[in-house]
Write a structure and sequence with these properties.
Layout: H1 17-29, H2 39-51, E1 61-68, H3 83-94, H4 98-106, E2 109-116, E3 127-129, H5 147-166, E4 171-177, H6 181-193, H7 197-200, H8 209-225, H9 233-240, H10 243-257, E5 261-264, H11 267-279, E6 287-289, H12 298-304, H13 321-339, H14 343-346
């Protein structure tokens, strides 16, 4: 780890055992059978412990959408052309994408960040252009990024978390957009978990069976090419990741270090989360997992993180959309914990 990346190892605050005990006691006094709200009770207790507060809250909420292009698209691993990345970034910033609709409906902030696409987005209102390069290199032919590029992308995520902290944000959702990024995420996940490509590679943007098999072959080639990087998550991120994936890693770590809860999205976001936790295991406490993606590799990533997602809707859109869907549950867990009457307050025999 270079000096410029020493911040990655900064500690994440530990949950408060006293706050957890107080929250558990309150849950047992609310006007309901003990445990009747199931996982919403344990979620509220966990949030209270992390925030060291008897009244956990998750608002304000910020969604950070990181975009980047991938050189591995040259290997014909996507059902869509690479030009779709920039087109979709424009659509997201213009309010027409799923995550745009969800952010409005949920009253959440939405920041769109170009980490390195092949198009010029400087004229697009609502896009923050911080690109560290015109897309990554082809990970099946060599390292996806230079060390300077991965440091820059990590820094983009860190800066996004700092802006959120400055706005008083309590919960952050990290989204991503980039044609080819399920290939990069699958390669990174395989390397982190020591699993073969065929176990984790899925259809991504909609590949058929033959397309998935070809994509797995490309990932297998990449894993063989970069085998010497095994064991070092930062090296694996550099060789197999993407600008937006690295930005997610940096954002997650900075959020945990700054006491901001993270609601993790699907396959790509969870690959970034696993990488971040391998770099700094203390981050794990600050990660909530929103949904089970339909991408076949997501289950293995969740198992590696000992994570049980809140929802399973068969989604695989990305953009942070699955996490946005789960946000109301997290809000309701807090509302129930904070405002339900106790037996004593309601004059009900406990």
């Amino acid at each position: 780890m270079t000096d410029s990346l020493d911040w990655l190892a900064n500690p994440c605050p530990a949950p408060s055992h006293a706050a957890a005990a107080a929250a558990r006691l309150r849950q047992d006094q609310l006007t309901k059978p003990r445990g009747a709200l199931g996982r919403l009770e344990s979620l509220a207790i966990r949030l209270a412990a992390l925030q060291d507060s008897p009244s956990p809250r998750v608002d304000p909420v910020q969604i950070c959408l990181f975009a980047g292009d991938h050189g591995v698209v040259a290997e014909a691993v996507s059902a869509y052309p690479q030009s779709v990345t920039v087109a979709m970034v424009r659509n997201i910033a213009g309010g027409g994408a799923a995550i745009s609709v969800l952010a409005r409906a949920l009253g959440a902030g939405l920041e769109v960040i170009d980490c390195g696409t092949l198009g010029d987005l400087r004229d697009v209102p609502g896009v923050r252009c911080e690109g560290v390069g015109p897309g990554t290199a082809n990970l099946a032919q060599g390292p996806a990024m230079t060390r300077g590029q991965v440091a820059g992308a990590l820094g983009i995520g860190r800066a996004a978390a700092a802006r959120a902290a400055g706005q008083g944000v309590r919960l952050l959702i990290g989204g991503e957009m980039g044609i080819g990024n399920t290939t990069a995420a699958a390669a990174l996940a395989c390397a982190l978990l020591g699993l073969p490509a065929a176990d984790l590679v899925g259809p991504g943007t909609g590949l058929d069976g033959a397309g998935v098999r070809h994509k797995a072959q490309v990932v297998a080639r990449a894993l063989a090419l970069h085998a010497q990087g095994q064991g070092d998550p930062l090296v694996l991120l550099e060789r197999l990741g993407g600008f937006e994936i690295a930005a997610l890693v940096g954002c997650y770590l900075a959020c945990g270090q700054g006491r901001i809860l993270v609601l993790v999205d699907g396959f790509i976001a969870t690959a970034a989360a696993l990488c971040a936790c391998r770099i700094n295991p203390g981050l794990r406490d600050w990660l909530l997992f929103s949904h089970g993606s339909a991408e076949p590799g997501h289950r293995a990533l969740l198992a590696a993180l000992d994570a049980e997602p809140l929802l399973d809707l068969g989604m695989r859109l990305g953009e942070g959309s699955g996490a946005a869907m789960a946000l109301p549950l997290v809000r309701l867990a807090c509302e129930l914990h904070n405002t339900m009457a106790t037996f004593a307050e309601a004059g009900v025999a406990g």
